[in-house]
């Protein structure tokens, strides 16, 4: 079953109105609701609740969706790789600045 990505996406590779460069090809499953969103701003604007980061010790959770091949990755796989380990799509390295919003 293909995951649903919520929020204002702009293409089939999970880019959104906030982040839409060639490297912005992931969606994040939020710990608070278990739903995928392209970014923290999409969640903030469309969810009916506050977000909360994945707690420490959750690195084996499937919580990242590669928008190119639609493979779900664990938090550990995502944080440790500059690209998708399945299709080699490059991830935006600047996203690391937002990791505290998503992961403890």
Structure description:
With 104 residues, the chain is an alpha+beta fold. It has one domain (26-102). It is 16% helix and 13% strand. It has helices spanning 40-46, 75-80, 99-102; strands spanning 26-29, 36-37, 62-66, 72-74. It has a 4-stranded antiparallel sheet. A hairpin with a 5-residue loop joins strand 3 and strand 4 (72-74).
Q: Please state the overall shape, judged from the principal axes of the Cα atoms.
A: globular
Give the percentage of residues in beta strands.
5-15%
Number of domains: 1
Specify Rg, calculated over alpha carbons: 12 Å
**Beginning-to-end CA distance, first to last residue:** 28 Å
Q: Which regions are unreliable across 5 or more consecutive residues at pLDDT < 50?
A: none
Strand arrangement across the biggest beta sheet: 2-1-3-4
SSE run: EEHEEHH
Helix content: 10-25%
Give the rounded overall mean pLDDT. 96
Label the structural class.
Answer: alpha+beta
What does the main sheet amount to? 4 strands, antiparallel
